[in-house]
Amino acid sequence: MGGNQYHLPRLPRAAYLKLEQQVRQVLDDLIPGGYRIPLAHLDKTDFGDMDLLVDSAHMTPGLFSAFAQRVGAVEQRSVGHIQSFHVPGPGGAQEPGGMQVDLFATPAELLDVRCSFMDYGDLGNILGRLVRPYGLMWGDRGLELIYRRADDEHYRHHLPVPGGIDTVLDLIGLAPEPLRAGFGNEAEMHRWLITARDFRSWAFLDPDGRIHLRSKNRPGIARFNTFLEAEIQAGRLQAAPRMERQDVSVLLSRLEGGTAEQLGALWNEQVRLEERAARLAERFTGDRLLALRPDLGRMEFEMLVRALKNLPADAEPGGAEWMLARSPEDVHAWLLTLPAPVISAHMRATWEKKIRINAQKAEKKAAAKLREGRYGQP
Questions:
Q1: Could you tell me the residue ranges of all domains in the chain?
Q2: At the fourth CATH level, which superfamily is domain 11-110?
Q3: Cα–Cα distances in Å, from 259 out to 84, 145, 170, 265, 320?
Q4: Peptide bond into 176 cis (omega under 30)
Q5: How confident is the model at residue 155 (pLDDT cuts 50, 70, 90)?
Q6: Average pLDDT estimate for 49-74
Q7: What Rg value do the Cα atoms of the chain yield, rounded?
Q8: How many CA atoms lie within 13 A of 310 on its CB side?
Q9: Taking the CA of residue 289 as centre, how many other CA atoms within 13 Å lie in the half-sphere pointing to its CB?
Q10: How far apart are CA 26 and CA 67, in angstroms?
C-alpha cells in the first residue's frame, strides 16, 4: 500500500513469515499492543510488502530509529503518513532482495477496525459493496451510515455505526465463524461471500459499476469477478440484478436492538440539524445576501459574509439562534441595514494582489491540464 519504494522482488511465504515474526518481536518490545498486521490467506505464496498499522501516538523519530536499528533496515523513507523501511530478508543484508515494511500512522481507536477492513486483501472492498444498498460504507474508518439530502445527491454526511465487522456480517447474513477461523485460500473466502443474504452478482459484474471498474487495478476483485462468472456459467449462482438502495428503516430493522437504537438516534439528530440548516438558509446565505445587497463590492461582500458566519450562535443581533427566532422577512430587512465594511487602501491592494496571483495559478494549472490532454486534445 505504500507503493513499491525499493523495487524489490516478491518474498516467498516462508521467508516472509520469518521476517514477520522478527518484526512482531521488535514491535512487541517497543510498542506492546500498539500495532496490527492484517491477515493474509494461508495459501498466499509470496508477498510484495508488509503493511503494519501503528498507533499514531507512537509514530515518532525515536520509534523509527529504534525500529530501523533492530530490524537492520538498509533504507528508510517517509511518504505522507507512512514510514517505509527496506528490511533485509532472513538471510541478512548480504542476501539480495528483502522486504519493504511500511508503518501506517493510525488513530488508536481505529487500529482494530482498520485492520479488519484490510484483512485478506480485497475482502473489505467486497464487503463494502454488499452493505452499500443499505446506505452504508465499510472502509478504513469503519462502518458508516451515509446521510443524503433528498434534494442534493452530492451532499453526504457520515454517521458512525457501532460494532465494526460484526455488524457488517450480521447485517448481510454472513456467518462469522469462517472469518474468525481464517481462510485457507481465496476460493474458500469467495464461496463464503456468496452465501450472504440477498447476494446480487450484478453488483460486481455490471461493466459500468464502480467496483467492476476498480477490478482493473485490484487483482483481488478481478479474481472474485472471475469466480462469479464461473459459478453463473456452472449454474450454481443466479445472475441477479443489483439491489436497489434501501430505506433507512430497513437497515434499522435488521440491526440488533442496542445498535439500531443508537444509530436511529444519530439519524434523527442529523434530520433535525438538516431541517435547522434549511430554515437558516431561508434567512441567510451568501447568495441571498448578494441578491439583497448589490451595492457591496466583492471584497466588502466577502468580509461581511465572513463576519456574519463567524458570529456565535447566540449573538444578538445576527447569530444563528437570533435569525431562527425571526421571520425570513425580518432578517432580510436587518441585512439591508448593515453598513458596508470599511476597507483601507492597503487591505484592498493586498486583497487584489492575492486575487491576481490565484488567477495566474489557475491559468497555469488549466494550461498544464490541456497539455496533458486531461481536458481533451490541446
A1: 11-110, 120-254, 257-337, 346-378
A2: Beta Polymerase, domain 2 (3.30.460.10)
A3: 38, 12, 11, 10, 33
A4: no
A5: confident
A6: 95
A7: 27
A8: 6
A9: 24
A10: 7
* CA atoms in the 13 A half-sphere facing the CB of 338: 24
* Grid coordinates given for 171: 447485517
Query: CB–CB of 283/332 below 8 Å?
Result: yes
Q: How confident is the model at residue 368 (pLDDT cuts 50, 70, 90)?
A: confident
Listed in sequence order, the residues at least 6 apart from 84 whose beta carbon sits closer than 8 Å to its beta carbon are 2, 5, 76, 77, 78, 100, 101, 102, 103
Alpha carbon separation from 12 to 44, 48, 74, 246 (Å, rounded): 9, 9, 20, 45
Under 8 Å between Cβ of 303 and 343? yes
pTM value is 0.75
